[in-house]
Amino acid sequence: MKLRSMIWKELWQRPTPMLTSLLAVTLGVTAMVAIQNITVFSEQKIAGDMESLGANVLVLPPAVTLQDYYSADMHGHTMPEEYVSRLALARMPGVENLAPKLCVESNVDSIPVTVTGILPQSEFQAKAAWQGLGLISPVGSDRGCCATKANVDAGADDPNSLATTRTVQELDDRDVILGHDLAAQLGAKAGDELAVLGEDFSVLTVLPATGTIDDSRMFAHLHSVQDLSGAGPVVNVIEIMACCEDAAGSLITNLSAELPDTRIITIAQVVETQVAVNGLMSRLSWVFLSILLLVGGASIASVMYANVTERRKEIGTLMALGASRSFVTRMFLGKATLLGLAGGLGGFVVGTIVATVLGPQLLGISVQPMPHLLAVGMVAATVVAVAASFLPARRAAGLDPCLVFNDA
């Protein structure tokens, strides 16, 4: 009988003892693959959000725990809109733009939507008290600010600029701007009428896809959202587009002094924290893999030793019929190799599915399969399975057929 046939026959006839071992190996690879997938694509999302996010400083209510800087206004806490006026009147060096926002939940055609109230830049410019404050840098400014999407083409009349600069120049009190995904869900386009917060609004434009949470939002005039929702003159967050050197320097101190009852967050701080969390998750994935593979290896070794003990007579008969010691060793190691390959493959498939499902739901990130993790998982699982089976295989190969039959 060929070696391959004997291995498959052994696995087919005695599947139960190996299931526990296979499960432990599979779980180890699953944990590694799932966490690595989420970590890698979370880092990519951070990079993409940083590229598309104009604001680099956030002013938040003091009770807010920041979970996702790109949806920092989705926390339910509010602060007075008057804080925006105070910041504007403070004439702080480095403040390129202010973008107060208020988010409320509503329904459009029985579909739940997040309505985000925004204040168009024309509102700032229309107030005499705010004239000449430099909230929008003039073209050709030599203030030394780094070029960001927050100040490139600031003041453009295109409402689609909201997708890149996080601000819009003009927005009537009964106009709404739809994110790409929400527009598709509602089947709405520019010029359509939608009933929002009990009033009819006209769709001004549909934003291009950004790959961020804004794709599923609806934007309306801040004061309309405040009035119709009954929230009053409050906001959830004030986004500040600041010069890079000022955001890293004295601006934070000045903001904290001006608004001591708020929490001031820089995007750099948030990203550093998120990167640290991602690094911890990545290291934990390898710890989980190591622990579960050790458990699986110990289980495989135990099962293999028990298998050798139970099959002493069969092994002795096989050797008496001419099977060499290397043949017996390869038979046990071949079975272990198949278990490792199966555990690695199964762990990769399950881990990828888990990451693909949980990534969008828990973290709002899109996860795609990472083929190189298949090789990593299969190699790790196979090495552990073979190593755990090596001593039992050598023990089986060292049996003396004569002694085996005498013991019987």
Notes on the structure:
- The chain is an alpha+beta fold.
- It has 2 domains: 3-47 and 274-407, no CATH class; 62-261, no CATH class.
- Helix content is 54%, strand content 15%.
- The protein has 14 helices and 11 strands.
- The strands form 2 sheets. Strands 6-7-5-8-4-3-10-1-11 form a 9-stranded mixed sheet. The chain has a two-stranded antiparallel ribbon with strand order 2-9.
- Helix 11 crosses helix 14.
- It is elongated and about 100 Å long.
- The two termini are 25 Å apart.
Radius of gyration: 31 Å
Q: Runs with pLDDT <50, length 5+? A: 127-156
Number of domains: 2
Order of helices and strands: HHEEHEEHHEHEEEHEEHHEHHHHH
Instruction: Tell me, rounded to a whole number, the average pLDDT.
Output: 75
The total strand number stands at: 11
Strand order of the largest sheet: 6-7-5-8-4-3-10-1-11
Helix content bin: 40-55%
Class derived from helix and strand content? alpha+beta
Pfam family, one: MacB_PCD
Family: Belongs to the ABC-4 integral membrane protein family.
Organism: Stieleria maiorica
Keywords: ATP-binding, Cell membrane, Hydrolase, Membrane, Nucleotide-binding, Transmembrane, Transmembrane helix
